[in-house]
Design a protein that fits this description.
Helices cover about 65% and strands about 0% of the residues. It is mostly helical. The protein has one domain (about 10-155): Endonuclease III, domain 1 (Orthogonal Bundle), CATH 1.10.340.30.
């Protein structure tokens, strides 16, 4: 089943076909709505003519920041996020030979190893790495043994994160879950 995260068929198609776009969308998913974050890679591709780690890594940082700032901006914080996107692209080029999917396929890794590899990427902490691992397992056919356990709560059935969004209804349920979690954290 094709991804349905952004509400924009072209942006979702890019996420579906490009592991780098999907990983970049996850990187951008902070302090902005999920749909905006995951639409960011399509905006970058449209503005740059292509979206691949080699090109992004080789760009002049100021040029990338300017592209990120063009209205509508790719992110609420386009300058700092341009640096993060470029750092991610550089890591994929230097550590994975430019092949984003190698992070979860090279050497037939188990779920714990995929999680370790994701956490080693710039901009990916524990939670972001677990959510992305769950997204790979739930929607992209990742069959790495133990991915569910490695993804923690995000690997279980429910509506906790972008990994669980398959349509407008599931997006609403994920938003409700996030609101409830924020309210609970605030109450503590």
């Amino acid at each position: 089943m094709p991804l349905s995260i952004t509400g924009d068929a072209a942006a979702d198609a890019l996420l579906d076909e490009s592991p780098f776009a999907l990983l970049t969308g996850m990187l951008l998913d902070q302090q902005i709505p999920m749909e905006t974050a995951f639409s960011g890679p399509a905006k970058l591709r449209d503005r740059l003519g292509a979206l691949d780690p080699q090109s992004i890594a080789a760009m002049d940082p100021d040029e990338l920041a300017a592209v990120m700032k063009q209205p509508p901006a790719v992110h609420r914080f386009p300058g700092s996020m341009a640096g993060r996107v470029q750092a991610l692209a550089s890591a994929i080029v230097s550590e994975w030979g430019g092949d984003t999917a190698a992070i979860w396929t090279q050497g037939d890794p188990d779920g714990a190893e995929v999680l370790r590899r994701l956490k080693a990427l710039p901009g990916f902490g524990e939670q972001k790495a677990k959510i992305f691992l769950a997204l790979l397992g739930k929607q992209k056919g990742l069959a790495a043994p133990g991915w569910e356990k490695a993804a923690g709560d995000y690997g279980t059935p429910g509506y906790r994160s972008v990994a669980d969004i398959v349509d407008a209804d599931s997006l609403t349920k994920v938003r409700e879950h996030k609101r409830a979690m924020k309210a609970a954290a605030k109450a503590k």
